[in-house]
Amino acid sequence: MTAGKLIIPSTLRAAANLRSSSMPKEVAKKAAAMLSSAPSGGKHTLPDLPYDYNAIEPVVSAETMTIHHSKHHNTYVTNLNVTLEKLDAAVSAGDVSTIIGLEGALKFNGGGHINHTLFWENLCSKDESEITDGPLKAAIEESFGSVDAMKKDLSAKSIAVQGSGWGWLGLNTQTGKIEVATCANQDPLEATTGLKPLLGIDVWEHAYYVDYRNVRPEYVNAVFDVVNWKTVEERLVAAK
Amino acid sequence: MKLAITISALLAASTDAFSMSMKADTGSSSRRNILKTGAAIAAGVAAPAVSNAYSVPDLLYPFDALEPYIDAPTMKIHHDKHHGTYVTNINKATEGKEEVPILDLMADALEATPVRNSGGGHYNHAFFWDELAPHDQASKTKPSAELSAMIDKSFGSFDEMKAKFEAQAAPGAVFGSGWVWLAVNKAGDELKILGTPNQDNPLMKGVCDDIYLPILGLDVWEHAYYLKYQNRRPEYVSNWWNVVNWDKVNENFDYVCKNHVGVSVRG
């Protein structure tokens, strides 16, 4: 079952990582999700966080993580499913005009789902966040000169995003180099630029307003303390 | 010449300062400017060359006046910090240039990114504050006969206009951050509802299919509603109608229809 392939590893991960007494609830939720998943190509579901809502405090509060995950990301998932249903109907009817008309909603909600799924996975608690020697460090040093230079570039460009968008580290598979890129709104990195996403930083105001108000620079700089560099490295290795 | 301008600015500002001090302390930046300029004049020299062309206009009401529809903490941060930053940045971007009203920078704003973002931000917010009023005042106002007639002509009815406006304000419609406007066309015979991203507005050449003259606008950046509404933007939008001052909107409408240019703003 293709839906099961995605869910089972994360269930195990959730079961292993969950420190709180909510584990039985988490497992039950996963089971329910498995049962309600449509066959392959069907409904998308909100992925559980690989950690508790308070795991990356004080960088991002549990309050923000709760709203960001259970409301914002959830809404993208819901609306993506609605849009896909409309798309199915339009494709079946051969209604090209409607298909084209759904492009915006698809990019917005589909991008929102992709981006946030990547985001949760590239965060972890402070004590787990560490860049060790390995292919990622080597690639960063090759592309930017140093880890600090990369952080400086990524944070400056993420902070400078006008309005809503994302800052990214991405792999340019043609040159083999890691690049900094930014995308507006929920435009997904790979579909928009061709870069393979390695690390995403959400700079929509909803990502930081509760904790940092208008001071986006403080948020962006603090996020580096909770980046899951292991995941970023796994993505790099997988993308090469 | 520069000294004469400074003195008249000082006089204008001090009048404002007196009336402003009667209201809640909403922003001392202009009073600071007055003191700075006054000290410079007293010292017998022209004011320093940093551009103070623009300033954050004080609100016409206290920060909590729009409760419970728009909360006081949001009004304070939105006005002092967000609008404040746009003003700081447009002043930096226009340093050394001839001082013109912010409205005059809008038409060609797309030619310079800082003007588009920060100049647009300053205009849009200055426009926004003055269209709002406390509910007990706002609820007594309504669209004028002329405005109602054009609303009916352009949308069918007020309710249809409202529905179209709210649809444009829904998440995804204006992308992540932006504004929704009710605007008159240049000819002055039709109303349109337009969504513009980030700090763009319909006065800027190249943003919409033509220039349109806003009479009512709504900030749908998350900072405009997040503290109280979080992700519930539709709730913010439907509550915002309760603090729209239609007297001001009517005034804007009369002005743009008569003059075929955008409304001027304070600051």
Structure characteristics:
heterodimer; A: 240 residues; mainly alpha; 3-stranded antiparallel sheet; 3 strands; 57% helix; globular; disordered N terminus; B: 267 residues; 10 helices; iron (chain B); superoxide dismutase activity (chain B); Superoxide dismutase [Fe] (chain B)
Describe this structure in words.
The complex is a heterodimer of chains A (240) and B (267). In chain A, helix 7 packs antiparallel against helix 10. In chain A, 57% of the residues lie in helices and 10% in strands. Chain A has a three-stranded antiparallel beta sheet with strand order 2-1-3. Chain A has 240 residues and is mainly α. Chain A is globular and about 55 Å long. Helix content of chain B is 48%, strand content 9%. Chain B has ten helices and three strands; from the N terminus they run H-H-H-H-H-H-H-E-E-E-H-H-H. Chain B has helices spanning 2-21, 29-42, 72-93, 113-131, 135-138, 145-155, 158-169, 226-229, 233-240, 246-259; strands at 178-185, 191-197, 212-219. The longest helix of chain B has 22 residues, at 72-93. Classes of the chains: A mainly alpha (240), B mainly alpha (267). The A-B interface holds A 67, 71-72, 75, 79, 104-105, 108-109, 162-165, 184-186, 204-206, 209-210, 213-214 and B 77, 81-82, 85, 117, 171-172, 175-178, 197-199, 221-223, 226-227, 230-231.
Instruction: Characterize the largest beta sheet of chain A: strand count, sense, and whether it forms a barrel.
Output: 3 strands, antiparallel
Give the % helix of chain B.
40-55%
**Helix and strand sequence of chain B:** HHHHHHHEEEHHH
Biggest sheet, spatial arrangement of strands of chain B: 2-1-3
With strands numbered from the N-terminus, the spatial order across the biggest sheet of chain A is 2-1-3
Strand content of chain A: 5-15%
Please bin the fraction of helical residues of chain A.
55-70%
Query: Which two protein chains have the largest interface (Cβ within 8 Å of the partner's Cβ), and how many residues from each?
Result: A-B, 23 and 21 residues
From the helix content, strand content and strand pairing of chain A, which structural class follows?
mainly alpha
Q: Count of DSSP E strands of chain B?
A: 3
The count of strands of chain A amounts to: 3
Family (chain B): Belongs to the iron/manganese superoxide dismutase family.
Protein name (chain B): Superoxide dismutase [Fe]
EC number (chain B): 1.15.1.1
Domain Manganese/iron superoxide dismutase N-terminal (chain B): 54-132
